[in-house]
TrEMBL record, chains A, B:
UniProt key word Oxidoreductase: yes
Originating species: Lactobacillus kimbladii
Gene3D superfamilies cross-referenced by the UniProt entry: NADH Oxidase (3.40.109.10)
Keyword ATP-binding: no
InterPro entries named in the record: Flavin_OxRdtase_Frp, Nitroreductase, Nitroreductase-like
Taxonomic lineage of the native organism: Bacteria, Bacillati, Bacillota, Bacilli, Lactobacillales
Family: Belongs to the flavin oxidoreductase frp family.
GO terms of molecular function: oxidoreductase activity
Start and end residues of each Nitroreductase domain: 13-164
Protein name: NADPH-flavin oxidoreductase
Record key words, sorted: Flavoprotein, FMN, NADP, Oxidoreductase
Length: 252, 252
């Protein structure tokens, strides 16, 4: 294992859900923006936008839709947006039709740009001894969130991030052993759930130590439980939302 | 602007397309795997897999489909895969139905996991003074690539990466000014293409200095040109490919 300051931060990553009551300095904010800006981008299209939500009313509405009390509370709230609107505008204002901006292909390239930029910013955050939590809940109620963010067509809020000065020191969450997630040449189809027995025990111990009052679930219990059980939820509005945004119109 | 070793690497990122003829050491490889493993993951589902392609025959086929001579040539080739197969297997082997693994929602969460892990690995690569180039071309011919990679249902190769010891020193590619990509609270709809005049000049100068024999395009010329012009290409197989993979089955 090779160690340097970047890698040490990466392998010690924890999500932070409790922040001190302090916001980013202008210099810190500008640094995160600059890192965002320099992320690799597919075909040089630069299909990503980063929103900083500081308005209290808007933060409260986002917090409510996300259903997590730390969203838009202490620290700074960001939303990373797949953005094909900008390039559509360039084409239209220069007398061209929309071309391929409504295709699934270009949307997926925008997802690449946006999510790569997200993690790049996340690593910059931790390098400054700040912490973050990913906000996948930004899409718990996609149609309502779109109204709150008031975004134009051809944009899609992919993922949020709450950033701040950590006010907790969570334990490192144990991940699947590499033998289950990294492979050479061939993807092995002969996965056996019994081989996860040791890992399940490690996960159970982690929860046990983290909070004695909390329900303790092994990894396989979680995967066979509520989070993947069949049900209809607002997150299933995603295809409808993307079409409403005139994205992926070739997906029928 | 705040500087540290992580951030300095991020803001000086260039794609490397020429590598020395040397592969990663076992320790370097294991380090990248460990960083991959510790990336944030949506709902703790760990829906990402990292493939290391070392087989020469497979590398040649991937190179041909990607249409770039540096793919699978000097250095190491990786493919980052959205992987819902593993969790489906856990559910099935423990007597549960597939639940939500075929939904767009869960697929998008898998995209989050996979692309965040991609950028995390990319930052680790640069922290070791190695270089990389993103391989979006992994999806230039989606159906054929799936055959070459021989992946099971419920997986999707999202993005590739060629890694190695840099054998070139490219110039830093100028990005859109922050005023066009980062906003506070409100997304501004009043985008004006004339405001990109200065940036277009910067991009033109960059190409001019990079290679006198190469076509010189400003940013807006690229966006209004071939890369976004209407046409039917194999990349438009993406929706078909995902359904073939039994992903996003709720997207009709």
């Amino acid at each position: 294992m090779i160690h340097n300051s970047t890698i040490n931060q990466q392998i010690n990553h924890r999500s932070i859900r409790k922040f001190k009551d302090q916001t980013l300095s202008a210099e810190q904010l500008n640094t995160l923006y600059t890192v965002f800006q320099h992320t690799a981008t597919s075909m040089f299209m630069q299909n990503a936008t980063m929103l900083h939500i500081t308005d209290e009313g808007k933060r409260a509405k986002i917090r409510e839709l996300c259903g997590q009390k730390y969203v838009g509370a202490e620290g700074d709230l960001f939303v990373f947006v797949v953005d094909l609107y900008r390039n559509q505008q360039i084409r239209r204002q220069l007398g061209k039709d929309d071309g391929r901006v409504h295709t699934t292909d270009i949307f997926f390239q925008g997802m690449d740009d946006t999510l790569l930029a997200w993690q790049n910013v996340a690593n910059a955050v931790e390098s400054m001894n700040l912490g973050y939590v990913p906000l996948g809940t930004i899409n718990d109620h996609p149609l309502k969130m779109l109204d709150v963010l008031d975004l134009p067509k051809l944009t899609f809020p992919a993922l949020g991030m709450q950033v701040g000065i950590p006010d907790q020191e969570p334990q490192l969450k144990p991940r699947l052993p590499l033998a289950f997630t990294t492979f050479e040449n061939e993807y092995p189809r002969d996965f056996k759930v019994v081989d996860l027995k040791d890992y399940d025990q490690v996960v159970t111990t982690y929860y046990d130590l983290r909070d004695a009052n909390r329900r303790i679930d092994s990894f396989t219990k979680q995967i066979t439980g509520d989070k993947l059980n069949d049900k209809r939820i607002d997150r299933d509005e995603l295809p409808e939302l993307l079409h409403k945004q005139e994205l992926c119109l070739d997906w029928k």
